[in-house]
Amino acid sequence: MSSLTLKGPYWVAARQHRRALWVVPAVVAVGLVVVIALRSWAVGPHSGRPDAPPPNHGYELLYWFMEYAGTGLLVLPLLMGAFVAGPMTARELESGTWRLALTQSTTPRAWLGSKVLVAAAVSVLGSAALAGVYRLGWVRVPGTYQLHWADRATYEVSGPVLAAYCLLGVALGVLVGQLVRRTLVAMALTGVLTGLVLLGLGALRWSLLPVQTGTIPLEGSLLDLMPASALLMDTGLVTSTGERLPGYACLERSQDLRVCPADMDVIGRFAEFHPVAHFWPTQLLESSLVLVLAGVALFAAFRLVGARRA
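Above: the chain's sequence. Below: its structure in C-alpha cell form.
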C-alpha cells in the first residue's frame, strides 16, 4: 500500500485541497442513496411490469430528481475547471506561495504536474461514478419529456463524454490560471471557455455520424419511418426525382397535409434520424475530440510553466 501513497508535490496538492476534493465522493454517496431510495419507491410506466399501476409519488420524484440532477451535472466540468484555475493554480501564483514549492527540490513542471494529476484523478473517478449513478436512476424514466437519451444534459452526463469535458476543464484551468494569475478572473474565464466548448461541440455532435433515412408513401405515418426511441433530425416530402420538399409544401397548396397537387410530383415522405445505437459511437467520437483539445491545452500549459522562473 505504501507504493500507492502520494508523495512529494502530489501529496502537498492533495493535502492543500483535501476538503474541496472530498466534496466529489460525498456527492456520489448522497446521489447513490437518493437514487436507490427513489427507485425502490417508484412505480410507473417503466417499472417493467405489464400491469403496472399509474405513476406514484416515488416515480414523480425520481423523474424530478433526474431532470435536475442532469442539469446540475452538466456544470460539473465548468466547476472543475474553475477550481483548478483559481484555488489550485492562480491563487498560488498571485500570492507567490508557489515559490515555496520550488525551494523543496521541485521543478515548475513537477509543481504543475501535481495539480493536474490530483485534479484529473478526482475528475475522472468522480465523473465516472456520477454518470453511473445517473444511469442507475435514468433507466427507470427513459424517453420521458426532457429525459430522452439524446436530450441536452441527459446525453452528456450518462456517458464517458462527461469525464472528457471534466479533463478539458482541468487542462484549461491550469493554462488560464497561469496566464491570468488572478483567482476570481481565472475561475470565471475558465468556466466560460469550458462552457463554450461544451455548447459548440453539442451543436455539432449529431453531425459526427451519418443519419439514417426512411421513406414511406404520402398516406403513411411518420411513426412507421423510425423507431420510437430515435432522434429525428429532418423530415419532409420527396418527389419521384428524389427532390426533397418541406413537410408543409402540400399544405400551402391544398390546405391538407396528405393531399398534394399532381404537378408537385410528390410520392412520399422521408425522415432522417439517429437511432439509439448511435449513442455510444457518438459518445466516443465526441470524447476523442474533447481529449484532443485537452491535450493541446495541457501542452501549452506545461510549455508555459517550463519557461516560468521563480
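The chain has two domains: 2-205+278-306, 212-277.
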